[in-house]
Amino acid sequence: MRPLLRVTDVRKYFPIREGLFVQKEVGRVHAVDGVSLEVRAGETLGIVGESGCGKSTLARCITGLYPVTSGSIEFDGDPRREVQMIFQDPYGSLNPRRRIGSIIADPLVIHRVGTKAERRRRVQELMELVGLNPEHFNRFPAEFSGGQRQRIGIARALALRPRLVVCDEPVSALDVSIQAQVINLLKDLQAELGLTYVFIAHDLSVVRYVSDRVAVMYLGRIVETAAGEDLYKLPRHPYTNALLSAASVADPDLSARRERIVLTGDVPSPIAPPSGCRFHPRCPKAMPKCVTDDPRLLAQGRPEGGHLAACHFPVEPGERLGSEKAQIEQESTEPHLEKGGGT
Amino acid sequence: MSLTEASAEAEHIPEQAEAVRGKGPWQLAWERLTRDRAAMVSLGVIAVIVLLALLAPVFAAITGHGPQEAFPATGLTPEGLPVGPGSGFWLGADSLGRDLFVRILYGARISLLVGLLSTLLATLFGVVVGMVAGFYGGWVDGVLARVLDVVLSFPYLLVAIVLVAVLGASVPLMILVIAFFSFAAMARVVRGQTITYKEREFIEAARSMGASKPRTMFVDVVPNLIAPVTVLATLLIPTSIVFEATLSFLGLGVDPRTPSWGAILSDSVDYYRVAPGLLIFPAVMLLLTTLAFNLLGDGIRDALDPRGEGGR
């Protein structure tokens, strides 16, 4: 089956320029450095990573906001209308000087859809769809709470009936109590409208809840990708292990028993990424080979399982990472992340 | 955090039958401004000054004194000194026996005309240059920003003196000179604001929906520039008025016979010991006008609250 979205070896470098009149390029930020992925219609691909790993840049490349430096992004449809984006900051992403009716109608106006009356009807329909009072279309963004503003952003993204919605950390700016409402709204909308999501977040528990598959990014590369459950049960890349161990756990008993893999050092500069495996300066398992050879994304376990990791020495089941402390039973090295409901 | 149960109802704002049409930022700003006593008094003072300036010919007719006519018989004492305030000359006469009150009113016309027109010109020019520099960035911005730096570092008085010496004093020239030296400040502010807004997510959102650059510029950036531009323009008016008075005081402003506050003050230098009104009245008018515009500008700034556009 043809995927809805195919990203092939996409690179996005930002030039660093200096100079008074004529600006010379003095360096490049390797924000996205060779990412390939596929998204099938109707599924949700979660992309996680620390801030600065390039996940938001990747999202902007997919929506066409940034031209890619190299590589290709193929979308099965009209990318201008059928790929839309939901932004992170519900305060920054709505123009404070415009009424929300006009904000939500923006995509319709830009793409010359319908008459004024038809657009008004569509806006009210959308507001109802996302759980806003359709009577409030004449209000200004300042009159809404953060969660409501994010709903406005969602309504705007849905105006053109997109097939793919790229969600760039759609809940990370919201109060925890509101996050669940927005996440559930996104899930309901997906079921109702048959949407496909690329869902970007740094919160692993949120990604786990919404995603069918998860890709982990580090310094502009995907280091591991797998079906959600596989990734959480058996992370193979040391970075994924560290990320999972750092995730917050609701149960304090569990949290105390769990082994924390504390990464030393900072994320290296994307202007001059490390040689070989980009994670080697911080990896507890790093060997000389990791400094020289760049690992490729290779299948882990059964090849048809779709679990890929880019590591010369993937973490084996039961293996412990970077701990001189007392033996901890195998069960507790597994990530225990809060999860509502069954799968 | 439980992700499963949470009701969307909790987020609904309580229903209000009225006020479904929200008050716009402008409406709210106007309401805040009308509650600002200093700004309202300033607005009143400005209105009175404008009215007096408009009615200058009426007062000239009432007193029977034209702005440039000298009345040595009635305006000067037998010793040749200017008469003080009285029923004939309401604020006294100047050294040539001209009516100070009428001249101050005509001076207000010059001050307001120069202040408003040069500010208007500076604002138009500054907004265009600032927006182009901020929105297009790159080398366009590099060149324009350097030009602004050069303009801001010009010794304006020297340039004005040279220009007047070469081209001769006139009101249009003065307006152009003042506008030229104040547009850079406006352009800088607009450039900075444009760059700030260009980076905002709502511009990115508009672009992700396929909006063109000019569209995002006019639909999304311009409405956000109105507040800071209004504030700065209001504050540029008194600066321009003082600039005009300075040039006129130095004899570089309008034609010396034309009544202008700076010129009147300049005349008073030799006579203020015998006729202090010659110094005090134009100075007070200048002070009142600039103070009123400054306070009004501050009031507008507070009312528009350019920083706190959201959040509350």
TrEMBL record, chain A:
Question: What Gene Ontology molecular-function terms does this entry list?
Answer: ATP binding; ATP hydrolysis activity
Q: Where is this region: Disordered?
A: 319-343
Q: Which SMART domains match?
A: AAA
Q: Which InterPro entries match?
A: AAA+_ATPase, ABC_transp_ATP-bind, ABC_transporter-like_ATP-bd, ABC_transporter-like_CS, Oligopep_ABC_C, P-loop_NTPase
Q: Domain (ABC transporter): give its ranges.
A: 5-244
Which example biological process does GO assign this protein?
Answer: peptide transport
Keywords of this protein's UniProt record, alphabetized?
ATP-binding, Nucleotide-binding, Transport
The record's section on Pfam families has: ABC_tran (PF00005), oligo_HPY (PF08352)
PANTHER family from the entry? D,D-DIPEPTIDE TRANSPORT ATP-BINDING PROTEIN DDPF-RELATED, TRANSPORT ATP-BINDING PROTEIN
Q: What's this protein's family per the entry?
A: Belongs to the ABC transporter superfamily.
Protein known as: ABC transporter ATP-binding protein
* Species, as recorded: Acrocarpospora macrocephala
Automatic annotation (TrEMBL), chain B:
Q: What does the similarity note say?
A: Belongs to the binding-protein-dependent transport system permease family.
Q: Kindly provide the name given to this protein in its UniProt entry.
A: Peptide ABC transporter permease
Provide one Gene Ontology cellular component: plasma membrane
What high-level taxonomic lineage is stated for the organism?
A: Bacteria, Bacillati, Actinomycetota, Actinomycetes, Streptosporangiales
* Residue span(s) of domain ABC transmembrane type-1: 108-297
Keyword Iron-sulfur listed? The answer is: no
Residue intervals passing through the bilayer: 38-62, 110-136, 156-181, 225-254, 274-297
**Organism in which the protein naturally occurs:** Acrocarpospora macrocephala
Q: Which UniProt keywords apply?
A: Cell membrane, Membrane, Transmembrane, Transmembrane helix, Transport
Q: How does it sit in the membrane?
A: Multi-pass membrane protein
Entry's Gene Ontology BP terms: transmembrane transport
State where it is primarily located.
Answer: membrane
| Subcellular localization(s) per the UniProt record | Cell membrane
